[in-house]
């Protein structure tokens, strides 16, 4: 059996606590692991983008303690937690040595992508995701993440063609009372104008895209830690969902 790893699982199996990683390994034991370019695009938008933010802060402060303070003061929401995890992971691996941290940061983008690909036997490319082709460039030593923004105006990927082949599945989601109403409205609009599948709407439909990538594949499940949002999708599309149990237990 194959398991498609979504973005939450990819992040947790790289940066999660030992307990979370153990729970993930439990549900994935004996399975062949795959992911997709769409998931990679989300990974770039979240983890790689957060790393670039962290690196910029570190270059400005050149100090471990002050970098931590800046993260607390200037970064909000989920990004703050992710950036703290990134910084703690890097600093701990470098024994909190400032010079070693500097050296590690210089090569860390390659490490992040290598960790994403770890243990995967395949990466699906159903959407030709534009964000999966993002790159980090350096201008005067400052890292910048390029090609991470999607546009409705330009032809950047194959998301419209992806949904054109799955219109029956979209209609099933519209009939599910448990499926998010805001996402239903996006789908209704996009069925009339396929360009509405692009840009920010594509990001909002991210969970639906990822789940739909295994449609038509035999003996394949989706692995995700966000069970609340994925269950309605998987029920509508008759897909099997694996979710690690992160709750405290003896």
Please render the helix and strand layout as text.
Blueprint (H helix, E strand, L loop, with lengths): L1 E4 L1 H9 L2 H11 L3 E5 H25 L2 H11 L2 H17 L4 H9 L1 H10 L2 E5 L10 E5 L2 E5 L12 H6 L2 H8 L6 H12 L7 H5 L1 H7 L7 E4 L3 H11 L3 E2 L8
Parallel strand pairs: 1-2, 1-6, 2-3, 6-7
Antiparallel strand pairs: 4-5
What would a concise description of this structure say?
The protein has 250 residues and is α/β, with parallel strands linked by helices. The chain has one domain. 56% of the residues lie in helices and 12% in strands.
Key phrases:
250 residues, alpha/beta, 5-stranded parallel sheet, two-stranded antiparallel ribbon, 13 helices, 7 strands
3D architecture notes:
The chain is α/β, with parallel strands linked by helices and 250 residues long. The protein has one domain (2-150, 216-242). Helix content is 56%, strand content 12%. The chain is built from 13 helices and 7 strands. The protein has helices at residues 7-15, 18-28, 37-61, 64-74, 77-93, 98-106, 108-117, 159-164, 167-174, 181-192, 200-204, 206-212, 227-237, and strands at 2-5, 32-36, 120-124, 135-139, 142-146, 220-223, 241-242. A hairpin with a 2-residue loop joins β4 and β5 (142-146).
């Amino acid at each position: 059996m194959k398991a498609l790893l979504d973005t939450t699982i990819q992040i947790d199996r790289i940066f999660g606590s030992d307990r979370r990683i153990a729970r993930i390994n439990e549900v994935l034991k004996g399975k062949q692991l795959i992911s997709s370019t769409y998931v990679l695009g989300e990974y770039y938008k979240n983890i790689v983008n957060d790393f670039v933010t962290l690196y910029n802060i570190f270059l400005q402060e050149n100090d471990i303690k002050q970098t931590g303070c800046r993260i607390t003061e200037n970064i909000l929401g989920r990004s703050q937690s992710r950036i703290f995890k990134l910084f703690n992971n890097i600093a701990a691996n470098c024994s909190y040595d400032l010079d070693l941290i500097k050296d590690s940061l210089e090569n860390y983008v390659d490490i992040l992508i290598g960790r994403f690909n770890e243990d995967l036997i395949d990466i699906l490319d159903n959407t030709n995701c534009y964000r999966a082709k993002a790159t980090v460039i350096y201008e005067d030593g400052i890292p910048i993440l390029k090609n991470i923004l999607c546009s409705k105006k330009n032809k950047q990927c194959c998301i419209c063609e992806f949904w054109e082949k799955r219109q029956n599945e979209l209609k099933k989601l519209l009939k599910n009372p448990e499926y998010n109403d805001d996402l239903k409205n996006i789908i209704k609009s996009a069925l009339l104008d396929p360009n509405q599948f692009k840009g920010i709407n594509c990001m909002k439909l991210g969970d639906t895209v990822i789940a739909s990538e295994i449609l038509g594949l035999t003996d394949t499940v989706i692995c995700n830690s966000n069970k609340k949002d994925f269950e309605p999708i998987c029920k509508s599309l008759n897909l099997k969902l694996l979710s690690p149990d992160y709750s405290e237990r003896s």
